[in-house]
Write a structure and sequence with these properties.
Chain A: This is Monovalent cation/H+ antiporter subunit A. Chain B: This is Na+/H+ antiporter subunit C. The complex is a heterodimer of chains A (943) and B (110). Helices cover 71% and strands 4% of the residues of chain A. Chain A has 943 residues and is mainly alpha-helical. The longest helix of chain A is centred in the first third of the chain and has 32 residues. Chain B is 65% helix and 0% strand. Chain B is mainly alpha-helical and 110 residues long. The chains are: A mainly alpha (943), B mainly alpha (110). Chains A and B meet through helix 29, helix 30, helix 31, helix 32 and helix 33 of A and helix 1, helix 2 and helix 3 of B.
C-alpha cells in the first residue's frame, strides 16, 4: 500500500502549489517541497524490504479486460531512479525558489514541476507496460509545459513544440512497440514480460517491436538523429534544464532500455544497433559541445554525449557494462545538474551565459568557481571524482566487447575520442568562464548568489567527491540492488579507485593529454571549421513541419475542396463501396424465410411512403411543399409501426412528427422559401445515381436481413419483464429498466441539444420576411378565435391523457417519452394559439431547469440503488393496495420514467418555445411600406 | 410483404441522401429527417415484421420483437433533437453568414 502512496502522492502534490500560491512565495515553496520529501522518506523506508533482493509490488485492477492495472513495483532500479527524481527534485525546488523572479507565476511553475516529478516516479515504478506508457506520455506533456514556461518568448514556444513533437511521436511508436511486446509475452505485467525474454527474441515480430521501442527510447533520451530537440529545449528556465534535461527526463529512455533489458536485449540486432547509435551520439554531442558558445548549449550537447555513452554501455549489455551504465546514470545526474545550476547562477548574476561575454568570474564568484571546477572535473573524468570511476569502467567494457566482430576495436577507439573531446569541452567551460580574463564587461555586475541558492550545487558536488573517493562505501549497495533488478541475479563486483596501470588508465591519460591540447589549439580548430556551413536544426525542423502541414492541406483541398457537398459525396461513396463489397460476398440475397403475403392496405401504405419520399426530393426547391410531403412520410411511418405491432413506436412517431413539423415550419419562416437552382445537371445526375445506388444497397440489405432467421436476445427480456421488471409492456421495461443506462444517456443528449439550441438562439439576428414565398403578406389575424378556444379546451384533456399514458406506460403502451411529447405538444399549441406574451405570463418559468431536473431525477433514481447495495439503475417494485383504489403497483422505474418525462418536456419546450419567442414578438403583420426588403430585426434574447 | 418493405426503405434512403447532397441548409435538414425515417424503418425490421402481435406480455402468444422497438423509440426522440439542433444551426449560420449555403460562403443568388 505504501508503494501506491509513493507513486500517487506526487500526483496529488500538484495541487499543493496551486492552492498555496496566493499565500506568499516562501510558504508555497516549503509546502510544495513537503510532498516529494514524504515520498522520498517513504521510498527510503522500504529499504529493509528491498535488501532481500526481492521487488516489492502492489497492484489494483483498473481495466482488466485491456490488461491494464494500477500496478507499481519497487526494486533496485526503481529505487535508484526514485532517489534521483525525488532527491534532485527537492534540490531543484530549493534552487527554483531563488531562481525565478519575484513577479513570475511560481505557483504554476511548481505545479508543472511536481506534475513532471509525479510522472517520472510513475515511469520508474510502473509494473505494467501500458501504465508505464501512460506516465511516459505525461512526462512529454509536462516537459512541454515546462520548456514553454516563458511562453512570451518565441524560442521557448518553438523549443517546447519541437520537444513535444519529437518525444510525442516517439511515444506513439513506443505504444505500438509495447503493445507488440505485451502481445509477444502474452501479458502486460512487467514480471511476465521480463521472464519471457527468449520467447520474445525468437518471435518473428521482434525486429519491428525492437525498432518501435527503441524509437521511443532514442527520441526521449536525445539519441542521434533525434538529439536536436534537446539543445532547443534549453529555452526553458534553468531549473528545468537541470532537472529534466540532465538528471531525469532524458534518462527515461535509458531507464526503459535498462528496465526491459532482460526482455529485449538478448539479440544480435540489439548489440549492433544500440552501441552504434550510442557511439555516434557520444561523438556528435561531444564535438558540438566543444564549439558552442552558450553555456547551456555546451551543457546540452555534453548531456547528449553522455547519454550516448550510457546507451553504448547498455548496448554492450554484459553484466559489468550494465553496472557501469547505472553507475554513470548517477554520476552524470549529480555533476550535470550541478553544472546546470551553476550555469543558471552565472546567468542570474551576470545577465548572460554567452561564453564570449564571460570571463574572470573567479574573482567575483570564488565559491561558484570552485564548485563548477570540481563538477567539471567530474565530467571530464579526473581521478578521485565519480566521473572517473564510471569512465574507466566504460573504457574497460568497450575493450572487452565482442560487438561488431572484426571491427570490435572501433568501439574503444570511438570511446577514447569521446573521452578526448569531453576533457576538452570541460576544460573550456571552466577556463573560459572563470579563469580567462574577461574581454568585455558582463551586463550585470557579478557577485555570489544567496547561499541557499548555492546549497543544492554544494550538495551535488560533495556527492561527486565522496562517491569518487569512497565508491565502495557510498555506491556499492545501491548499485548492487539496481544491477540485480536489471540482470535478475546478484553481480559480484568491487568498486575501487585504483586498478593498477592498465589499458583503460592509459586511455584516460591519453584523453587528458589530447584533450588539453585540443583546448589549447581551440582557435585553430575553429578557423579550420569556419568554411563549413552549419545546419540550424530548428530551421530544418520548422521547414519540414511547414511542408507537412502544407501538403496535408493541399491533399484535403484536392479531396473535398472545403465543401460539405463534396465531403458528403466521398463519405457516401465510401459507404457505397463497403455496402457493395459486403453484398457481393453473399451467396444469395434472399434467405430461408418465405415472404409473407401482402394485402391492399400494405400496398397503399408503401405507395404513399414512396410517393411522399420522391415528392419531398422532387419539390425540394419549393420548401413549404417539400415539408408537407415530408409530413406524409412521417405519418405513414407511424402507421407502418402500428401495422407491424408496435403501438409504442406509432405513438412516439406521431407525437414527434407533430413537434418536428412545428419546428421546421418555424425555422422555415426565417429561411428563404425557395432553393435557388445551383447544381449543374451533371452534378444532379451524379448525386441521383449515388443516392439511388445507396438506396438499392440499403433495400438489398434490408431484404436480406428480413428473410433470414435471426437470433434475438429478446426472449430474455420477454421472460424477465414481469418477474424482474414488474411491467407487462416489454418495450417500456427495456427502456426504463433493462437498458436504463442507454435511456439515461439519451435523455442527457436530448437535454444537451436543448441547451445548445438555447445558446444558439441567444442574440440571434434574424431576417424576418413580411410575406410568404408567393409575396402574400401574413394574415393580420394573429390568434384565430377557433384555435384559441379549442386549444384552451384541449389543454386539460391533453394533460390528462399524457398523465394517463405516463402512468400506464409500464404495463400498457405509453411511457415517459410519449407522455412528455404529448404534454409538450399541448403547451406548444397554447403558445401558438394565444401568443408568446400570453403563454409566458402563465408559464412563467424557464424550461432549462425542467430538463436538467429530469436528467437529475433519472440519475438519482439510478444512484439510489447503490444505497441498497445493488448495481447502478437496479429497479425495485412492489404491489400495494389501498381501500377504494384496489391493488396497484409502485416501481422505482416509474420514478426513472418521471425523469424521462420531465427531460423530454423540458427539452422540447426549450427548443420550440424559445424559437417561437423569437418569431412572435416582432413579427411584422401589417402591410409595410416596402414589402420586398426584409427588415433585419434583432431578436429578443430568449429566456 | 418483405420485398415491398425493403423497396420502401430503399427509396426513402435514396431520396433522403439525395437531399443531403444539396447545397442549401434546409433541403439538407429535410434530407436528414427523411434519412432518419428510413433508418428507423430499417432498424425496426431487424426483429422481423410481425402482424397482429401482442404488445403486452400475458402468457404465450405472438409477440413482436421488443428490442428493436425500444431502440427505435429512443432513436426517434434523439432524431428529433438532432433535427432541431441542425435546423437552428442553419438559422444561426444564415444569420451570421448572410446566406443559407452549407459552406456559408457562396453568393446568395436569390
Amino acid at each position: 500500500m505504501t508503494l501506491l502512496w509513493i507513486a500517487l502522492l506526487p500526483l496529488l502534490g500538484v495541487l499543493v502549489p496551486a492552492l498555496t500560491a496566493q499565500r506568499g512565495r516562501t510558504l508555497c515553496s516549503l509546502a510544495t517541497g513537503i510532498v516529494p520529501a514524504i515520498a522520498l522518506l517513504l521510498t527510503l523506508m522500504q529499504l529493509p524490504g528491498l535488501l532481500d533482493g526481492e521487488a516489492l509490488r502492489v497492484s489494483v485492477p483498473w481495466l482488466p479486460e485491456l490488461g491494464l492495472e494500477l500496478a507499481f513495483r519497487l526494486d533496485g532500479l526503481s529505487l535508484l531512479f526514485n532517489l534521483l527524481i525525488l532527491g534532485i527534485g527537492l534540490l531543484i525546488l530549493l534552487y527554483a525558489h531563488f531562481y525565478l523572479d519575484k513577479d513570475e507565476p511560481y505557483g504554476r511553475f511548481y505545479a508543472f514541476l511536481i506534475l513532471f516529478m509525479a510522472s517520472m516516479v510513475g515511469i520508474s515504478m510502473s509494473d505494467n507496460l501500458i501504465l508505464l506508457w501512460l506516465f511516459w506520455e505525461l512526462t512529454s506533456l509536462s516537459s512541454f509545459l515546462l520548456i514553454g514556461f516563458w511562453s512570451y518568448r518565441g524560442d521557448a514556444r518553438k523549443g517546447a513544440r519541437m520537444a513535444l513533437t519529437i518525444t510525442g511521436a516517439g511515444g506513439l511508436a513506443l505504444l505500438a512497440g509495447l503493445l507488440l511486446l505485451g502481445d509477444m509475452a502474452g501479458s502486460y505485467r512487467m514480471d511476465d514480460v521480463l521472464a519471457s525474454g527468449a520467447q520474445i527474441v525468437a518471435d518473428g515480430r521482434y525486429p519491428l517491436m525492437l525498432a518501435l521501442v527503441l524509437l521511443g527510447a532514442f527520441t526521449k533520451s536525445a539519441q542521434f538523429p533525434f538529439h536536436f530537440w534537446l539543445p532547443h529545449a534549453m529555452a526553458a528556465p534553468t531549473p528545468v534544464s537541470a532537472y529534466l534535461h540532465s538528471a531525469t527526463m532524458v534518462k527515461a529512455g535509458i531507464f526503459l532500455m535498462a528496465r526491459l533489458h532482460p526482455a529485449i536485449a538478448g539479440s544480435e540486432l540489439w548489440s549492433v544497433v544500440v552501441p552504434l547509435v550510442g557511439s555516434i551520439t557520444l561523438l556528435y554531442g561531444a564535438w558540438f559541445a566543444l564549439f558552442k558558445t552558450d553555456l547551456k548549449a555546451i551543457l546540452a550537447f555534453s548531456t547528449i554525449s553522455h547519454l550516448g555513452l550510457i546507451t553504448v554501455l547498455l548496448g554492450i549489455g554484459s553484466p559489468m557494462a550494465v553496472l557501469a551504465a547505472l553507475f554513470h546514470i548517477i554520476n552524470h545526474a549529480t555533476f550535470k545538474a550541478a553544472l546546470f545550476m551553476s550555469a543558471g547562477i552565472i546567468d542570474h548574476e551576470t545577465g548572460t551565459r554567452e561564453l564570449k561575454l564571460l570571463g574572470g568570474l573567479r574573482k567575483t564568484m570564488p565559491v561558484t568557481a570552485l564548485l563548477s571546477t570540481l563538477a567539471a572535473a567530474a565530467m571530464a573524468g579526473v581521478p578521485l571524482f565519480n566521473g572517473f570511476l564510471s569512465k574507466e569502467m566504460f573504457f574497460t567494457e568497450t575493450l572487452a566487447t565482442p560487438v561488431l566482430g572484426g571491427l570490435s576495436w572501433l568501439i574503444p577507439v570511438l570511446a577514447a575520442i569521446g573521452g578526448v573531446l569531453s576533457v576538452a569541452y570541460s576544460v573550456r567551460l571552466v577556463h573560459a568562464v572563470f579563469y580567462k580574463p574577461a574581454k568585455e564587461a558582463s551586463p550585470k555586475k557579478p557577485h555570489e548568489p544567496p547561499h541557499l541558492m548555492r546549497l543544492p550545487v554544494e550538495i551535488l558536488v560533495a556527492l561527486c567527491v565522496v562517491v569518487g573517493l569512497f565508491p565502495a562505501f557510498f555506491a556499492t549497495n545501491l548499485l548492487d540492488l539496481a544491477t540485480q533488478a536489471v540482470l535478475g541475479e546478484p553481480l559480484d563486483f568491487h568498486l575501487a579507485i585504483w586498478h593498477g596501470v592498465n589499458l583503460p588508465l592509459v586511455m584516460s591519460l591519453v584523453a587528458f593529454a589530447l584533450g588539453l591540447m585540443m583546448y589549447w589549439r581551440h582557435a585553430d580548430l575553429r578557423r579550420f571549421l569556419q568554411p563549413f556551413a552549419s545546419v540550424d536544426a530548428r530551421r530544418v525542423f520548422e521547414r519540414f513541419m511547414m511542408t507537412l502541414g502544407y501538403r496535408a492541406e493541399q491533399t484535403m483541398a484536392a479531396l473535398d475542396g472545403n465543401s460539405l457537398q463534396r465531403f458528403m459525396s466521398w463519405l457516401l461513396l465510401a459507404a457505397l463501396c463497403m455496402g457493395v463489397l459486403g453484398l457481393a460476398q453473399m451467396d444469395i440475397l434472399s434467405g430461408s424465410k418465405s415472404n409473407q403475403p401482402s394485402d391492399g392496405i400494405l400496398v397503399f401504405g408503401a405507395a404513399m411512403l414512396i410517393f411522399g419520399g420522391i415528392a419531398t426530393a422532387a419539390t425540394h426547391r419549393y420548401r413549404l411543399i417539400s415539408l408537407l410531403m415530408l409530413s406524409i412520410v412521417g405519418l405513414f411511418v407511424a402507421l407502418t409501426f402500428a401495422r407491424f405491432s408496435a403501438p409504442d413506436l406509432a405513438l412516439t412517431q406521431l407525437s414527434v412528427e407533430v413537434v418536428t413539423m412545428i419546428l421546421l415550419m418555424l425555422a422555415l419562416f426565417f429561411l428563404p422559401q425557395r432553393t435557388p437552382r445551383e447544381s449543374s445537371p451533371l452534378r444532379n445526375v451524379r448525386d441521383m445515381l449515388l443516392a439511388g445506388a445507396l438506396g438499392m444497397v440499403v433495400a438489398s440489405l434490408n431484404y436480406a436481413v428480413m428473410t433470414r432467421e435471426t437470433l434475438s436476445i429478446s426472449s430474455f427480456f420477454m421472460a424477465n419483464s414481469v418477474p424482474g421488471g414488474g411491467g407487462h409492456n416489454v418495450v417500456n421495461v427495456i427502456l426504463v429498466d433493462f437498458r436504463g443506462f442507454d435511456t439515461l444517456g439519451e435523455i442527457t443528449v436530448l437535454a444537451l441539444a436543448g441547451l445548445a439550441i438555447f445558446k444558439l438562439l441567444n442574440r440571434l439576428r434574424l431576417f424576418m420576411p413580411h410575406s410568404d414565398g408567393e409575396g402574400r403578406v401574413w394574415s393580420p389575424d394573429r390568434y384565430p378565435a377557433i384555435l384559441t378556444s379549442i386549444s384552451m379546451t384541449l389543454l386539460p384533456l391533453a394533460l390528462l391523457v399524457s398523465a394517463f399514458i405516463f402512468l400506464r406506460g409500464h404495463n400498457q403502451p405509453g411511457g415517459g417519452f410519449i407522455a412528455g411529447l404529448i404534454t409538450a405538444v399541448a403547451l406548444i399549441l397554447l403558445y401558438m394559439a394565444r401568443g408568446v406574451e400570453w403563454a409566458q405570463a402563465r408559464l412563467d418559468f424557464p424550461f432549462q431547469p425542467v430538463a436538467v431536473v429530469g436528467v437529475a431525477i433519472a440519475t438519482l433514481t439510478g444512484l439510489g440503488s447503490w444505497l441498497f447495495g445493488y448495481p447502478f439503475l437496479t429497479s425495485a417494485f412492489g404491489y400495494f393496495s389501498l381501500p377504494g383504489i384496489g391493488k396497484f403497483e409502485l416501481a422505482t422505474a416509474l420514478l426513472f420514467d418521471l425523469g424521462v418525462y420531465l427531460a423530454v418536456v423540458g427539452a422540447t419546450l426549450m427548443i420550440l418555445a424559445n424559437l417561437g419567442k423569437v418569431t412572435t414578438a416582432h413579427r411584422p403583420v401589417t402591410d409595410p411600406k416596402e414589402p420586398d426588403t426584409p427588415a433585419p430585426t434583432p431578436a429578443k434574447e430568449p429566456r | 410483404m418483405e420485398t415491398l418493405y425493403a423497396i420502401t426503405t430503399g427509396v426513402l434512403t435514396a431520396c433522403g441522401l439525395y437531399l443531403t447532397l444539396r447545397g442549401r441548409t434546409f433541403p439538407v435538414v429535410v434530407g436528414l429527417t427523411l434519412t432518419s425515417y428510413a433508418v428507423n424503418l430499417f432498424l425496426f425490421s431487424m426483429g422481423g415484421l410481425t402482424t397482429d402481435g401482442a404488445a403486452i406480455v400475458h402468457g404465450d402468444g405472438n409477440y413482436a420483437d421488443p428490442l428493436p422497438q425500444a431502440l427505435v423509440l429512443t432513436a426517434i426522440v434523439i432524431g428529433f433533437a438532432m433535427t432541431a439542433f441542425v435546423v437552428i444551426l442553419a438559422m444561426r449560420a444564415r444569420s451570421e453568414a448572410g446566406n443559407d449555403h452549407v459552406d456559408g460562403k457562396k453568393e446568395d443568388r436569390e
